[in-house]
Amino acid sequence: MKLPSWLCPSDANRPPLLQLTLLITCLAPFTQAITFNPIPSANLNLDNLGRVGLAGDFSGISLYQFEGQNENGFSTNGSQSVLARFPNGGFATLASADAGIQAMCSFVMQDGAMAGVVVGGNFTSLGGIESQGAALFNQNTSAITPLTGLSGQVSALLCDEATNTVYVGGSFKGANSTNAIAWVGTAGWTNLPFSGFNGPVTSITKASNGLGNATGPSLPDQQIINISGANITSGSSTSTPGFNEPTNIVCKTSGTDGAGNTWLLADNTPGFWKASFGFGFEPTKLRLWNTHQDGRGTKTWRYTAFPINGIMNFTYIDPATGQNASCTSECPLSSNTSVPYQDFHFVNVIGMNGFQIDISAWYGSGGGLDGIELFENDIFAYAIDTFNEPTCAGIQIASTVTKTGPWVVTPSQQSSSEYLSASLSASESASVVFLPDIKQSGNYSVNMYTPGCIQDNTCTSRGRINITGIMSTETSNPGFYTEIFQTNNYDKYDQIYFGYIEAGSASFRPSVTLSPAAGQSTANLSIVAQRVGFTLISSSGGLNSLFEYDPTQAEVDTSTFANSTFDQAGASLPIGAGVNALQTSGSTTYVGGNFTTSTLNNIFAVSSSGTTALSGNGLNGQVMTMFLNGTILYVGGNFSNTSTGGSTGLSNVAAYDTSKNTWGALGAGVNGIVTNIVPLLMNITTNQPETVITLTGDFTQIFGFGSNSSVPVTGFAVWVPSHNNWLQNLRISTMGINGELTASVDIPGGGSLFAGSLSSSQLSANGAAALSSGLSSFPVHIQPRTTQSSSSLSKRAASSQNVSGVVTGLFYDNGGRNVTILGGHFTAMGTNGSNVNNLVFINGSNSDTVTGVGPSLSEDSTILALALQGDTLYAGGELTGTVNGGSVNGLVSFNLITASFDTQPPSLAGGNVNAISTRPDSSDVYVGGSFSAAGSLSCPAVCVFSASQWDRPGTSLDGVANAMVWGSQTSLVVGGALSINGANTSLATYNAKAQNWTAGVGATAIPGPVTALAAANSDASQLWVAGTATNGSTFLMKFDGANWNSVSAGLGNGSTIRGLQVLSLSKNHAPSNLVPASETLMITGSLNLPGFGNSSAALFNGTTFEPFALTTTAANTGGSLSQIFSQNQNFFSAPGGHLAKGFVVLIALGIALGLTFLLVVAGVIADRLRKKREGYSLAPTSAFDRSGGMSRVPPEQLFSSLGQGRSGVEKQSTMI
C-alpha cells in the first residue's frame, strides 16, 4: 500500500537560496510504502436480509479492517504524533510525542538515499525515546533516532538534498548556536557562520533570496546567581575563630577584611571553597575579592564546574598591564590593595549546579578571599525563592516570587533544579507569581521551564496551566495570556511571550502568573512550577525579523545586508515586528506575521525587485500560518478583513489569488484564531482524491454563509475547494476527521506523513449507517451531539433512559414502498428545512424526502422501540405528547399510508416502553417495558394491544421487560428484571394459547436482568442473553436447549451490551460448541475487548471476539451501537438459497400424500393377490341376489367385536 500524497511544485521551480523565519515548504515525494496488516474478512452473508442498517450514538463509524485502528479520540493534553493514512482513509499513529510537533521534512541525501524524516517540535520524547526537540523518524520501520544536543523548541525545518543539510530553526540552544543551526549529513550538528539569532526562528523556506548574526543584550552579566542559598563547604580552612567559616565571603562586596568578613586557609596550605546548588545555571562572569588580612591573599586558583567536573577557561583584564589575558588552571589574583575586585569571564558558557575554587598559591602565610559573586546573562525568576537573586546584594528590585496553595518542594532528580509541585482537588487552587529583575526595557523572549513528569511519577495526573503576564504600564498592550500543557515526559521550555517588557521600578514590576487551567477532569491535578527565563532581544546590523542567507558563503558580511531586498524588507518593519510564516512561489516570497506600516500590514511579498504590498495593503490582524496551493495562498491568523476594508468573510482565514492579486473568502470564515493550515487528500465525490485544506486553531464555530448555517466545531475545519464549501456542510458520504493537524511532509517515492492528533473514521455519519459490503450513509442529516451522557451507553433501564443518538430502526417496504424509519433521541433536518425530532422517515420512493411526525411528540422524548403491523407503525419509549387532542405516553401508532396518527392506544402509565414485537400471523402487538398499567387496565411489564384495546397476557407477570423474541406463533420469550407470581426471574416464556407465564428453563443461572436477547436458532429453543450482573459486571450467555453457557470472560470491565444478533456467514469458521460454523454472533454496544480496547460491535465465533465496527463522537469519545436492523428477518437461512419454511411444509405435505396414495394402491393389489390365491370369487351382483344371502347380525355382537386386540388405553379412549 502506498500512502496518498498531496501535490507539490516540482524541484525545478525551487530557487537556490534559503530564507529563515517560517513553517515549511513543499517537499519532494517516500522511498518505500508504509504497509498495514489487514484484518481477515468477517465473511458476513447479508444477501437474505435485504437492506441492513446500524443504529447507535456516534458521529463517525469505521469497519475494523487494519491493525492499529481504534476508537480513541484525539489527544487533548497537548501531545501530538507522527501519523500516516490507512488504505481506508483513516489515520494511524506511528510515533507519539509528549508535546507538540511543529515541523517535518524528508531528509534525502545527495546520493538519493532516504535518511529518514526529521521531526521537530517542543517535545522531549518521541515514540517513548527521549528526544529533545528533534528526532529522525525511519519511514520504513518507525524507529526513532534522537538528534541529541539541542535544548528547547524546534519550529522550522528545511531539508536540502543539494547540500546534505537540514536547516533547523526555533527557540533553542545547541552546540554554540542559538535558535538556528544545521544538521549536516552524518556529521551531526554544525554551527552556521553566524551562530544563530537573538530571537526565535519560526519559518525557513528555500527561495531566490535567505539567516543572520545578532547581538546579545546591551547589559550583559546582569543577573546575580544566588550563592547564599547554596550548600557551602571548604577544605583546609584556618582554625582561627571568625575566619574559618566559608560563608563569611557570601554577600560581602565591600572588600573589608576582618573577622566575619574574611575566609582564610590554614597557614601555607592549599585548600578549596565549594558551593553546591539546588538548581542549574550558566554563569558568564565570576567576580572575586582578594583578602589582604595580615598580608595574606590568594595568588593562583582554578574553577571546577560540577557535575561535569571540568576546569573552566576565563578571560580577564590584567590589572597590572590593562591588557586582555586568559587563564585556566592557574588564574591569578592581584595583591594590590587598590584593586577592589577582579572580573573573570567564562570562555565557554556551560550549565552547572555547583563549583569549586581550588587555591594553589598564596601571598604571605596563606590564601583566602573577602568576597565572591557569580553572574549570568539570562534573567530568571524561580518558584523557589531561595534560588532568586540574593537580597543581601543590595539589588533595588531583585527577582522574587509569591505563591498561594499547597506547594511542596520536589527534588530535582533528572531536572535542572528543584521545583514546586502541588496536587489539587477540584475545589483547590494554587498560583505562583514570578517577579523578574528586568533592568532594561526592550523586546524579550520569555520562556516557561517545566520539569518532566516521569521523574516524579505524575504523567497521568498532569494537565494544563494558565499563564498570564503583565509586561508594561501601557494600556494598549499591557500583557498576555496563554495556556501550556505540562504533560512532557522530560524537561522542556515553552516560549510564552515575545515582545516588549518595561523595566522594573519602584512603582512597577513585570510579572508572570502560573495557575491551573479551568475545566480539567483530572481528579487530583498535578501542577509544577520551576522557573521563568527572560532573554533580551536587540537588533543590530540592519536585521529585523528577516534574513537572507547564502549557504555557499563561509562567512556572513554584514555590510551586504543593504544589498538584499529580503533583509531590507525586514529592516523596513517597525521594531518589535514578528514574522510567523513564509511561503515561496517562484521568485516571490510571501511574508506573514505581526507588523504594521503605512502599506505593509501583517503580510506582503518580496522579490528581487523589492517589496510589494498585497491587495488592500494586507490584513487587519496577525498572520499566523500560510500554505500555497498552486496560485492560491491560504492565510490563517487573527484578522477579519483587509487593512483598507471592503472584503467580507475574511474571518481569521482567507485565500489570496497570487495571479490576480485578489482576496477571497472561505465561506464566512471561523470565529477564532487559525494557527495551522495543512493540506490533505480526500475522496469527496469520486474515487479520484483531491486536495482539501485543513484548519487548526482556537475556534469553536464555522460561520454560516449563503444557505449554510453555522457549524459547531472543536478547533478543526476542512475546506473543500472543488465545492467552495466546508466539508462539514456537504451532504455526501465522506470520511470523518477531527482534532488537529500541524504539519505534513511528502515522502520520496509516494505517500505522506502528518503531524498532529486526530480522530478519524471511514464514514462521517450521525447515529445511523447502511451496511452492505461496506458502509454508506442514509440520506438524512442528523445533527451531531457535542456532549454525551455517561449513561447513554445503556440502552434500557428501569427509570429514565437518558439515551442519545439513534436507538432503533426498520425498513418499511409494503406495496413496493421504500421507507427507512429511525428512532431515538436526536434532531434531524427535514427536507423542508425544519427540525425533525427523535422519529424520522426517509422516503426512498419519493426522492429521499425526509419528514417526521410534527410537534405532536415532546422534543424530550426518546424512541426506544419500533414495530410494524401492516401499514401501521408502533413507536415506543420514553415519550410523551399530545396526539389528536389527547395525551399519549409510552406508545404511539402512526399510519404510514396517510402519514398521520391513527386513533391512539390508551396511554401507558408508570414507566417506559423498551420493546415492541408483533405476534406472527396475527394483529396482536406485544409491548414490553417498565410500565404498570395501560389505560385503566393493570398490565405490568408486558401488555398486548389487539382489536383497538389493551389486554393483559396472563396474570402472573410483573417487573420490567427489556427485550422480546417470538419462537413460534404461540411462544414469546421475554428478558428483563421480571417476576412470576412473586418469584424473580431474568427470563420468562409466555404461551399465547394457554395464556400463562413460566420462568425460563434454568433462568436462575442468569446473574442479572437481561437487557439484550436474541434467538440462537429458528424456533428460539436456543437463546443468547446479555446484561449487567448484580455485581456490576457484564454477562453474555447462551442457552443451548438444556444448559446455560457463559462467555463473558472475553469482555473487559465497563462493557455494555445493547444488542445481539446471529448472522449467517459466506465462509465457515472453525467448529465451536457455542456457535455453528456457518454463523456468527454480532454484539453491539460499548465493548471493552481485552488486548484491543473499545469497540462498538464485535463478532463472536464461539471462541474469540473480533472487533467489527468502531465509532467516534463529536465529543471526542468512543461511540456506541445499539442494534443492527434489516429489511428481512431471514437470519437463519443458510447460504445457497434454501426454500422458505412455508414451501418446505407444502412440499413435505405433497410427498406425504403421494406416499399415502402409493401405500393404498399397494395394499389393494396385495389384497387382490391374496384373495385370488385363497380361491375367493366375485360375489353375485344381480339385483335379485343382493339381499338373498344376507342375514342380520345383532348390534351388540357387531360392536363387541370392535375391541378385539386393542390396548387398554385405546379402549378407554374409545369409550370416552
From TrEMBL:
Q: Which keywords does the record carry?
A: Membrane, Signal, Transmembrane, Transmembrane helix
> Is Phosphoprotein among this UniProt entry's keywords?
no
Q: Could you tell me which residue ranges the Rax2-like second domain spans?
A: 220-369
Q: Which GO terms describe its cellular component?
A: plasma membrane of growing cell tip
Chain segments annotated as transmembrane? 1143-1166
Q: Which residues form the signal peptide?
A: 1-33
InterPro entries of this UniProt entry? Rax2-like_C (IPR024982), Rax2-like_second (IPR048266), Rax2-like_third (IPR048265)
Rax2-like third domain location, by residue? 380-537
Record keywords: Calcium included? no
Show where the Rax2-like C-terminal domain sits: 891-1132
| A Pfam family this chain is assigned to | Rax2_3
Family annotation (PANTHER family):
BUD SITE SELECTION PROTEIN RAX2
Protein name, entry field: Cellular morphogenesis protein
Q: Which organism is it from?
A: Hyaloscypha hepaticicola
